[in-house]
Amino acid sequence: MTEPEPHSGVYVDGAWRAGSDGRTFEVRNPADDSVLATLADASAPDASDALAAAAAAQSSWGATPVGTRAGLLRELHNAVLERAEEFADLITAESGKTLADARGEVGYGAQFLAWFADQASQLPHGEHYTDPAGAVRILTQYRPVGPCLLITPWNFPLAMITRKLAPALAAGCTSVVKPAAQTPLTAVRLVELLHELGLPAGVVNLLSTTRAVEVSEAVFASPALRKVSFTGSTGVGSALLRAGAERVVNSSMELGGDAPLIVFDDAEPDHLDQVLVAKLRNSGQSCIAANRILVQDASADAFVEALAERFHALRVGAGRAEGTDVGPLIDDAAVRKVSRLVDEAVAAGARIAAQAPLPEGPGSYYPPTLLVDVPGECAIAREEIFGPVACVSRFKDEADAIRTANATQAGLASYVFTQDLSKALRVGTALDFGIVGVNRGFVSTAAAPFGGIKTSGLGREGGLHGLDEYLECQYLSLPVNSPT
Ligand code: NAD
To answer: In a 3-state reduction of DSSP, which class is residue 261?
Structure first.
């Protein structure tokens, strides 16, 4: 048997390996459909081995001094930033996003490494107190939850991993990382760096695979699994919650959104730039992308006219090409899904107010499209679009805006544009969403507790609470007076 390439894509117990059944899969560039790499395709035995390695490494990693764990995260942070262009290029190649978006993601992804290195030094140390009757001393302490399964989507190939892996490592948890099959190369590069930095074997294991169900079932089959942290669609998140229910596996879920973006008549004059960021970052393939743009009646016509002008001028093309504003979607299936949503809306009476031209040649492109007068019963008015299509509708007043914005099962991000900050506070507080961007279309930072309510998920990533997701609290109950 030939030695597997170092970047085989499957990393278990500190070593790269060929998949146990020898299968491989291709990673493609959505800008031109070229093959970027062929990786080992992990299957159930690889997944069982990965979890066994994580379980074996758990007690020593959990007992490794916090300063050592934080030091490793700082070194990884520096190593990623030293290779920022390499990472940006890789992210663009496998996800299709523009280089500007990819560079932004590298900065954002690296932030989590630095943030959780700092948070690690402030790990809760526990308390020591006596109950009101004076009979019992309570001693609380925190410990790592244990081996974790971290499953991530393709839209942010680096940041969605560091947002989970950094707090897991800081808290003392070992893990099995399963990136999306479309974008495993960034994950491979990150794990290569961890290996070079001397991460002990078994602490982080990587399963590149096209067989997500088989692999996750094999991991869930082991009682050693203590936590699953998942970012992806709500349907898969629910399935994973069901899979963990019997053994009550600790779960964090970052799921789909349906973000309303509310523009009041008194919005700042330059709000269009922010609206475009909220809609078009990553070609609209973001869980916090503005899904429904609601504009107050008096300014709606001018808003649509100005936004149409901006949409007409957008340059669509390969993410690596100079001057590209909007890159391709992740694959042809994504293009078909967005086309179906738009075609159905147009057949039902929606009007295309603007559409950017498409480049010639291959690639998974969909033209940035501005839709108005979308009938409420259309799927595009209710589903996560996940593409560069803006749907604009009108509202009368504050109450109308809040009612429409909240009429969804999702509850991840929302946006409010107004110069009246007391109105922003009032409306923001009334919105049933975990995140409210006020006069900003960009709300992501490692310092914020990112996460949603309702069907958008459970738990928070980043901020002052991100570490709690990977810790358990234990108390010792001691008598106040020692027995004689
Ligand atoms: P997806 O749910 O199809 O896939 C996400 C990950 O889960 C991938 O790694 C995939 O291989 C894996 N997977 C798929 N089926 C699985 C199964 N049955 N068991 C175990 N793993 C499985 O989602 P996607 O299409 O990759 O990403 C888009 C979705 O992710 C959107 O709904 C988006 O809103 C959401 N998302 C949410 C956040 C957030 O922070 N809330 C961030 C990014 C994306």
So the answer is: strand
